Amino acid sequence: MELRQLEYFVAVAEEQNFTRAADRVRISQSGVSAQIRQLERELGAELFDRSARTVTLTVAGKAALEHARAALAAAEAVGQAVGEVTDLIRGRLTVGMVIGCTLTPLFDALAAFHQAHPGVEITLLEDGSDRLVEEVRTGAVDLALIGAAAATPEGLDALTVISERLVVAVQAGHPLAKQRRVTLRDVVAHPIVCMPLGTGLRTVLDQACAAQNLQPAIALQASAADAIADLAARGLAVAILSDSMAAHYRDRLTARTIDDVATPALLALIWKNTHSPGMRELLVHSRRAFTKPDPATSP
Asked: What does the DSSP assignment read for 81-106?
């Protein structure tokens, strides 16, 4: 049994697809398949059910997955321990970012970290917050920027970087722009354009509507704040944004805080452990980057 076989096994398990796993580990699909078959022969059990389009783990595969991840982590730790002695950090870090987020301090942190530790390979991926939380819990993602409502996930370390209330943004001539006080019931009387499921803003909106037994008409969804603002500016729907996001579009849109939605939308960095020297260094750079004011924020 070789470490590369375990690496390929974990990649296929996480990607649920041999082609994507091959792209991830940068070898041919046939090479991945051959190594997995060899590993299965050595273990005396099939690790994957290949009968459907999506590759799934067998019972034996599920039993082996966490041990394979632990073995890879232990092997990486050996190299990192030697690297610490020689002042050289190597390895690989996977960073997750919630869909629809543009947060330049995170990019600044990654750039500064890369400059300081070029021996560490950084992978950046986008996904929904719920999935990112689970990937951090399992160790598939080392650090993630997620959106949440009111509180960060239990059982994980977290650094809240933004906490803001929801606003509705509309054209200057829209009826809501003329109201001094806007409630959620006022907002849901109009078609809404907002972020997709899995973002902090959408979670706050959905929870608030459920609490008041309101049924919002989500007419349009977009993962970028610019797109949401453009759609609202054209009168297609009212936009749900955070306060700092709406501030970027004050030349086109009038923003009103939704008075009876007090739960804030959060953006937070989350992680599970700091056993890796590279992870500890990335957190140092991240904390430093997020202490600086930044105008480009999108919870």
From this structure: HHHHHTT---EEEEEEEETT---HHH
Calculate the dihedral angle through the C-alpha atoms of 70, 72, 74, 75, rounding to the nearest 10 degrees.
170
Nearest 10 degrees: Cα torsion 233, 163, 102, 229:
0
Q: Is the dihedral of CA 187, 230, 161, 274 positive or negative?
A: positive
Q: 49-56, long-range: CB within 8 Å, 24+ apart, which pairs?
A: 54/16, 54/17, 55/12, 55/16, 55/17, 55/18, 56/16
- In order of start, what are the domains of the chain with their CATH numbers? 1-88 (1.10.10.10), 89-162+265-299 (3.40.190.10), 166-263 (3.40.190.10)
Report DSSP state, residue 141: -
Under 8 Å between Cβ of 73 and 3: no
Name, in order, each residue with C-beta under 8 angstroms of 97's C-beta and a sequence gap of 6 or more: 103, 106, 124, 125, 126, 127, 132, 144, 145
**CB burial readout 82-104, b (16+ within 10 A) else e:** ebeeeeebbbebbbbbbbbbebe
- The per-residue pLDDT for range 77-89, each reduced to its tens digit, is 776 666 655 445 6
Q: Tell me which residue of 274, 278, 273, 282 sits closest to 89, measured CA to CA.
A: 278
Give pLDDT tens digits for 208-263: 999 999 999 999 999 888 999 999 999 999 999 998 889 999 999 999 999 999 99
Instruction: Name the strand (E) or helix (H) holding 273.
Output: none
Quickly tell me which residue has 């590993």 as its tokens.
39
Question: pTM (2 decimals)?
Answer: 0.62
